[in-house]
Specification:
The protein has about 325 residues and is of the alpha/beta class. The chain has helices at about 15-35, 60-70, 90-100, 115-120, 135-150, 170-180, 210-215, 235-245, 250, 275, 285-300; strands at about 45-50, 75-80, 105-110, 125-130, 160, 185-190, 205, 220, 260. The chain has 2 domains: about 15-135 and about 290-305, Rossmann fold (3-Layer(aba) Sandwich); about 135-290, Rossmann fold (3-Layer(aba) Sandwich). Bound molecules: phosphoric acid mono(formamide)ester (CP). The site of phosphoric acid mono(formamide)ester has 10 residues, from helix 2.
């Protein structure tokens, strides 16, 4: 399949073939990352701007490193030191970045739809690095990459997403991607955070943790997204933890080869116990490592790369 998109705005609009193209391209870039010389010139002369209007550790640094590995020039935008603080609009800020010859703008914003908004008037490529509770496409792609790497497939696997689904952009992007590639998705958490409307997307919804985890091949844990909740969605954090946290006792209910995933940042002792976060079945840090290859693949493809077939020995 030949990649043809200028932007990466969401997973919902990607086809299964496009998702597989990103994963295959990322696999080639992961191999590049294991060479003595880890840089390739695919984006030489191009400028990537990381326009992060919301906090980030993993995604921002991962995009920065990915762009550097592709030999692009990288600019990290700091909100606190920017003219957004003086009343400049997002549109004007983005148009000024484009006037400075930004080829790719990677945006994280608290408002759902902010990347789609920029893509409507910019000539630069736009990559969604998380928009409100809407989508976080590269997180889902790196999650699928990790699942495929560890399990050898995605179709037919039972994937449980446990936690705050309602306010999670990671959940939405994962649901779209997993269902498109043939996984079975179960959602679990307090009923206020896991509305049954998700069944209409093709997911199973349950409020019983044992039922959600006992036949899971993958358990993807999500933190409570306090920053997006306008009111308390459950009686207390203590009650949430006692009912839904993945702890050692609950881990014993799972399949012996279950993978424990989390997009980070993790809240130890809340949605996940330290023992579980650091156990042999946890691939949380491997997800972060894989994120670099996936983001290299995304930047490469939206810059005009056609697919993994282009990554031959000349790179
Ligand atoms: N998973 C994720 O998006 O982490 P950051 O918020 O640190 O980027």
């Amino acid at each position: 399949m030949i990649w043809n998109r200028k932007h990466l705005l969401d997973v919902q609009s990607l086809s299964a073939d496009e998702i597989v193209t990103v994963l295959d391209t990322a696999r080639a870039f992961k191999a590049v990352g294991e060479r003595a010389i880890k840089k390739v010139p695919a984006l030489r002369g191009k400028t990537v701007v990381n326009l992060f209007i919301e906090p980030s550790t993993r995604t921002r640094i991962s995009f920065e490193l990915a762009a550097q590995r592709l030999t692009a020039d990288v600019v990290n935008f700091s909100v606190e030191a920017s003219s957004l603080k003086k009343g400049e609009t997002l549109k004007d800020t983005a148009r000024n970045l484009e006037a400075l010859n930004a080829d790719i703008i990677v945006i994280r914003h608290s408002a759902a739809g902010a990347p789609h908004f920029l893509a409507r008037f910019l000539n630069s490529s736009v990559v969604n690095a998380g928009d409100g509770a809407h989508e976080h496409p590269t997180q889902a792609l790196l999650d699928l990459f990790t699942i495929r790497e560890k399990k050898g497939k995605i179709a037919g696997l039972n994937v449980t997403i446990l936690g705050d689904i309602l306010y999670s952009r990671v959940a939405r992007s994962n649901i779209w991607a997993l269902l498109k590639l043939g996984a079975k998705v179960t959602l679990c958490g307090p009923s206020t955070l896991v509305p049954r409307v998700f069944e209409q997307m093709g997911c199973r919804v349950t409020y019983e943790v044992r039922e959600a985890i006992e036949d899971a091949d993958i358990i993807n844990l999500l933190r409570i997204q306090h920053e997006r909740q306008r009111k308390t969605m459950f009686p207390s954090l203590g009650e949430y933890t006692s009912l839904y946290s993945l702890n050692k006792q609950r881990l014993e209910m799972t399949k012996p080869d279950v993978l424990i995933m989390h997009p980070g940042p993790i809240n130890r002792g809340v949605e996940i116990d330290s023992d579980v976060a650091d156990c042999g079945r946890s691939v949380i840090l491997q997800q972060v490592t894989n994120g670099l290859a996936v983001r290299m693949a995304v930047l490469f493809l939206i810059n005009g790369g056609k697919g993994p077939q282009e990554l031959n020995s000349e790179h």
